[in-house]
Design goal:
By secondary structure, chain A is mainly beta. In chain A, 0% of the residues lie in helices and 53% in strands. In chain A, the strands form two sheets. In chain A, strands 2, 4, 5, 6, 9, 10 and 11 form a seven-stranded mixed beta sheet that branches. In chain A, strands 1-3-8-7 form a four-stranded antiparallel beta sheet, with no helix packed on it. Classes of the chains: A mainly beta, B mainly beta.
Chain lengths: 114, 109
């Protein structure tokens, strides 16, 4: 069975630009959650979508947004990029909500902001 | 403040030298505690879920246990392929998931 797919895997942007990252969950999974991973802060929760509705949101500024489509695919967008946004962005899918069981992670999108 | 703390930050073991990793938490209304393994350049891979104090789960050389305030991941007779970062995550009443910063384990042959 196909795993969680994230695209693009690597990208380089400059300050002030915006970026859109994509996540295709495992077939049948309705929950998609997003995390930012940096060496200093570890894995930090961005938001979770379940059946196209944002179920939960972490403590990130409004520049970070996301959405989920009817086929459960999800996108996250970061506008007005800052240097500190450089990180590995991980998407995870699960059969039920993210806090009730096993999460399946993609390999991440590594964003570098110059 | 709800927190998840993992220790040690890094651990170097000789092959066959058993040890334990710790995950302590200060959340109230625990819904579940999860252990993941992350290899360099990869996303985390699920290992275990623990729901209540006293619960134990085992998989090959790994055994996870849970008390009211912490969880341990015991590694028995580790091999070099067990080298990875081990993350724990806690879910609680607010429906959010908090991850610890992980323990980087290196097992030398």
């Amino acid at each position: 069975k196909a795993g969680v797919t994230q695209t693009p895997r690597y990208l380089i942007k400059t300050r002030g630009q915006q970026v859109t990252l994509s996540c295709s969950p495992i077939s049948g999974h309705r929950s998609v959650s997003w995390y930012q991973q940096t060496p200093g802060q570890g894995l930090q929760f961005l938001f979770e979508y379940f059946s196209e509705t944002q179920r939960n949101k972490g403590n990130f500024p409004g520049r970070f947004s996301g959405r989920q489509f009817s086929n459960s695919r999800s996108e996250m967008n970061v506008s007005t990029l800052e240097l500190g946004d450089s990180a590995l962005y991980l998407c995870a899918s699960s059969l039920t909500t993210a806090n009730t069981g096993e999460l399946f992670f993609g390999e991440g999108s590594r964003l570098t902001v110059l | 403040e709800d927190q998840v703390t993992q220790s040690p930050e890094a651990l170097r073991l000789q092959e066959g030298e058993s040890s334990s990793l710790n995950c302590s938490y200060t959340v109230s209304g625990l819904r579940g505690l999860f252990w993941y393994r992350q290899d360099p350049g990869k996303g985390p891979e699920f290992l275990f879920t623990l729901y209540s104090a006293g619960e134990e789960k085992e998989k090959e050389r790994l055994k996870a246990t849970l008390t009211k305030k912490e969880s341990f991941l015991h590694i028995t007779a580790p091999k070099p392929e067990d080298s990875a970062t081990y993350l724990c995550a806690v879910a609680w009443a607010t429906n959010k998931l908090i991850f610890g910063t992980g323990t980087l384990l290196a097992v030398q042959p």
